[in-house]
Amino acid sequence: MPLNRSGGRFVYLCDAMPRRQTKRGEERTPLTGSYDVIVCGASFAGLAVARQLAGSGARVLVLDRYEIGERQTSACGIPTDWLRAMGLERSARQEFGELVVHTPYGISRYELPWTFSTFDYRELCRLLWAQCDGEFETAKVDGRSGETIHTDRGDVSAPLIVDALGWRRILASDGGYQPPDAPLSRGLEVHPDGGSDDLEIWIDRRYVPAGYGWRFPARDEQRIGVGSFDPRFHVKDTTVLLADDLERPPVRYQGNWIPHKLRDGTENRIFFVGDSAGQCLPLTAEGIRTAFYFGIKLGDELRAVIEGRHDREAALRNYAEFVDAHERKFRWMLRAQRLLPRLPARIQRAVIRACGRKRFIDWSFGHYLRIAPPEAAGPPPKPVSEQEAVPAAA
Ligand SMILES: Cc1cc2nc3c(=O)[nH]c(=O)nc-3n(C[C@H](O)[C@H](O)[C@H](O)COP(=O)(O)OP(=O)(O)OC[C@H]3O[C@@H](n4cnc5c(N)ncnc54)[C@H](O)[C@@H]3O)c2cc1C
User: What is the rounded average pLDDT for all residues in the chain?
Assistant: First the structure.
């Protein structure tokens, strides 16, 4: 499979690669100007922040190196109630009331107390952006000096700056994370065509010594992948192996590093949200609803600054405290992530079986959902006309 370097990471080329929509060459006019808020990163976290600022009157600039929704960043599975709470139901592709867990010693079926849905990334981003009224520009963010963001198209500035750029935490003073030494997991998946009924995971050392494999069906495609909690374990071969075992071709690759340790929500007057703040949950690697959850809180804090209800220092303090208040829950999940793979396979299987009791599932999944509950989405902000807000490339 030929490889192409794109945006700092390798992408596997195949005939079904998504068409590049990002502006190139002469279309990339110089970028300049002052804004009230600059949101760097237009995926789950960045768009959630921008959404909370809609109708506030703030001049908001959202930057990403790709067009909105152009480059899928996950298997796109989320508790269905989060899609509803955010007004994003139209992006849903398939809903599951059961989780199927495969181990070398058998299969367990967990009846979930709430449903989980897969969605279409492009459609979800389009719907989310339709709830925003900021400006969007494609530009690669290179760094920052004070209140100025340096991009490959020029400099822009704002007193309120958000890093929603993913695990690299590009605007951090320490130059961000470097794998494989940083607390990162790695995940890779393929997206073959074809339907399937079950939401499935594999806890099996054949695929990964510490981590899990998955198959998330999304109506007419499947997202089959492997995630390793150990960043040194390469998941390419076993992703292909799992796809082979499921008799699906390993096509349309998508993969990235996944942070598994919560980081500070603020640093040097910059706000960090989503993967850049390590807000992806350890053990499950669920980072979409937490990106929404923390993004909404951050957007509300920034809105309070815009509306004169408090100043930037108070917003920095409040948001940092909010993030810190979740540290204990993230730490417990990280402990479970470290412990589970160390158990002998038969004990793992016994634990998985014991956890399958209905009362335990309802209790544990209820607690798990409440780490970032959908009620936190609150009432949707003032709607913005889809016609006006949908980016040209969507
Ligand atoms: C294979 C895989 C499968 C996963 N599946 C799931 C799942 O099913 N459910 C779930 O909840 N979580 C899943 N996750 C985790 C989830 O994808 C992340 O936690 C989530 O994407 C974090 O959202 P974010 O907005 O913080 O960052 P991202 O989604 O990574 O978005 C970062 C954005 O910043 C942009 N960007 C990065 N660098 C620059 C730059 N220099 N200049 C300009 N723009 C830049 C990117 O283009 C991107 O749009 C998965 C992760 C992987 C790797």
Answer: 89
The answer to pTM > 0.85 is yes
The secondary structure of 221-239 as a DSSP string is: EEEEEEEESSTTS--HHHH
**CA 74 to ligand 1 centroid distance, Å:** 6
Answer whether 382's CB lies under 8 Å from 54's CB.
yes
Distance 332 CA to ligand 1 centre (A): 23
> In this structure, are residues 65 and 138 in contact, taking their beta carbons and an 8 Å threshold?
yes
Dihedral sign for Cα 144, 149, 155, 156, please: negative
Question: What is the distance in A from the centroid of ligand 1 to the CA of 164?
Answer: 9
Give the residue among 206, 191, 202, 193 at the shortest CA–CA distance from 254: 191
**Ligand 1 atom closest to Cα of residue 41:** 34
Average pLDDT over residues 280-295: 97
Find out whether the beta carbon of 165 lies less than 6 Å from any atom of ligand 1. Answer: yes
Q: Which residues are CB-contacts of 139 (< 8 A; sequence separation ≥ 6)? A: 28, 31, 63, 64, 65, 151, 152, 153, 154
Residue with CA at minimum distance from ligand 1 atom 21: 73
Backbone φ and ψ for 264, nearest 5 degrees, come out as -60, 140
Query: Of all residues in the chain, what percent carry a pLDDT higher than 70?
Result: 90
The token pair that represents 177 in the structure block: 């994370």
Condensed to tens digits (0 to 9), the pLDDT of residues 207-225 reads 999 999 999 999 999 999 9
CA distance linking residue 255 with residue 160, whole number of Å: 31
Does the beta carbon of 158 lie inside 6 Å of ligand 1?
no
**Distance, CA of 168 to CA of 67 (rounded, Å):** 19
* Contact yes or no for 213/244 (Cβ under 8 A): no
> Do residues 122 and 151 lie in contact, with contact meaning Cβ atoms separated by under 8 Å?
no
74-111 core/surface letters (b: 16 or more CB in 10 A; e: else): bbbbbbbbbbebbbbeebbbbebeebbbbbeeeebebe
